[in-house]
Amino acid sequence: MDMHNQSHLLPLETLFETKHGRALRLTPNLTRLYGNFRIPPARSRQHVFSNFVSTLDGVVSLHSRGHAGGGDISGFSIQDRMVMGLLRATADAVIVGTGTLAADPQQVWTPEGICPELTDDYRPLRMALRKRAVPLNVIVSGSGRIDLRLPVFTSGRVQTLVVTTTAGAKHLLKQKAPRWLEIRAIPRCRGNIPPSSILDAVGRMNAGQRILIEGGPRLLGEFYARRLVDEQFLTLAPQIAGREYGDARPSLVMGQAFPPGNTRWGTLTDVRRGASHLFLRYTFGSKH
Fold this sequence. Notes:
The protein is an alpha/beta fold and 288 residues long.
């Protein structure tokens, strides 16, 4: 562990936490930095949780070339990266859409990929949880128009699953696919891929039950619309991004509008503070 690289990584302050679930045995360094981290009791179905960073006025991407990722929203907060790494370390699979892939095409969705400073803490945590070395990376693309030369497909650091349509699979197979890439076409699907089909495809990979969604807002919106999100982790960054009328800057959930009486209400279970950033955690009731 390189303490020089962590010299600016300060512990989070716990403002509120509940005792629901099992407290993980973190490394002493992660315990110092984060505090207690609990996960819900094991169950037969998948546990879906999401992690985003948002400005105070609800913007999750500046939607500008070269500035579409979460780093511009968090202010490139190392504490936010530490939490992202922790969540990935507890995940069996990380799901992203093509917009998230396009915003950070060099990304590989592993704990050390987002916070290399804590590699020596994330790895023993995954070993203690009896998980694979890295989570399965899942890319959702209806069109299949993605470049299989990107690091998430070619680095060999992760096993990757692309969930697509039949037409999308045909487009992908025109490229040379590495052996660790699995392509699953959802039959009779021409538009948005149903979240249940995505989860079924992940389940067939026998990756595990803890499924992390990291974007984008439209993909997350589909999961919320079908009440498939169990927990939401949200970093609230102390900036105002603003919007023009008709601005394309997205919020946490896009493509869905829940009417009065059918909105999604969560229960606050955890609040931590890092400088002027707030790290929030909510649980949501699910219908399966």
